[in-house]
Write a structure and sequence with these properties.
Strand content of chain A: over 45%
Strand order of the largest sheet of chain A: 3-2-6-9-10-5-4
Structural class of chain A: alpha+beta
Largest sheet of chain A: 7 strands, antiparallel
Number of strands of chain A: 12
Helix content of chain A: 10-25%
Radius of gyration of chain A: 15 Å
Oligomer: homodimer
Number of helices of chain A: 4
Chain lengths: 164, 164
């Protein structure tokens, strides 16, 4: 097993929520599936997002400097695959679901578990990826009753506990 | 609902793996439970970790600049609670499980899903937390057959799929 295979095997053991990251602005509208999102600061409310520098999304996000993190519900498996597919253009991806607009003009997935409208604060490069520090300016909750997780190279659905 | 309550409610919708982060070195041995870990770069292999600046771990990690990320198995719920408890000193926390040593001298949890021995590359502050960019230098896989996730203010176990 090479070092990079070993790292990938370690990473599928680190389960994560699946999200669709969207942006819109002067550099255009785009969206990707991403699980490398994590909580950063409570005050100000901020999250981290890691994006591959070789993909189209990286340049678009750098230019627009605003985004929406759509946390997916258990029923969004196919949508997740579509937003991860290199064969689909942005217009085809967005055509597969219903969207509304966040206050910052980025697309919010109708029916997401929640949508976070963010402003990009800082961007720093490490190896193949960049880290975007995202300040959360708007939060909307959707009707989804379960979350979509990725673990062990598979999707999993987690139901929201009644007392949550 | 205040803005900070709304942010907390959004964050429990963002499911995440549960990990115990350990360190050892000139500033001493310490460990905390953390779910704010995410994949960063494949080459070099790197992950991100967000740590609260008000806790003891922050200063210890800043000084030691090395750590071990122990990805927890489904059976580690109680251990996760203990490493998150402010009432327990480091020595009490470590006394509750068996440990071996990573090559960088940090404690690896015996029976973890996997353990990542890391060197801290950069540290940057955002609000209440700091982001640690961690270069992964060593990976060990353990015998656990499930992962421990946090979602909807509760723990969940995800079994490793047979074909993973």
């Amino acid at each position: 097993m090479t070092d990079s295979e070993k790292f990938r095997d370690a990473m599928w053991r680190l389960g994560a929520a699946v999200n669709i990251i969207t942006t819109d602005g002067a550099a255009g509208r785009h969206g990707i599936t991403a699980s490398a999102v994590c909580r950063l600061s409570d005050d100000p409310a901020a999250v981290l997002l890691s994006v591959n520098r070789s993909g189209q999304m990286h340049g678009v996000l750098r230019a627009n400097r605003k985004l929406c993190i759509n946390v997916l519900g258990g029923e969004h498996e196919e949508l997740s695959n579509n937003f991860a597919s290199r064969r689909l253009e942005a217009s085809e991806r967005f055509g597969m679901a219903a969207w509304e607009e966040m206050e910052n003009g980025t697309p919010a997935l109708v029916g997401a578990l929640c949508s976070l409208g963010c402003r990009v604060d800082t961007i720093s490069e490490t190896g193949t990826h960049s880290v975007f520090v995202c300040h959360v300016e708007e939060i909307r909750f959707g009707p989804a009753q379960s979350g979509l997780m990725h673990f062990g190279r598979r999707y999993h659905r987690l139901a929201i506990p009644e007392a949550a």
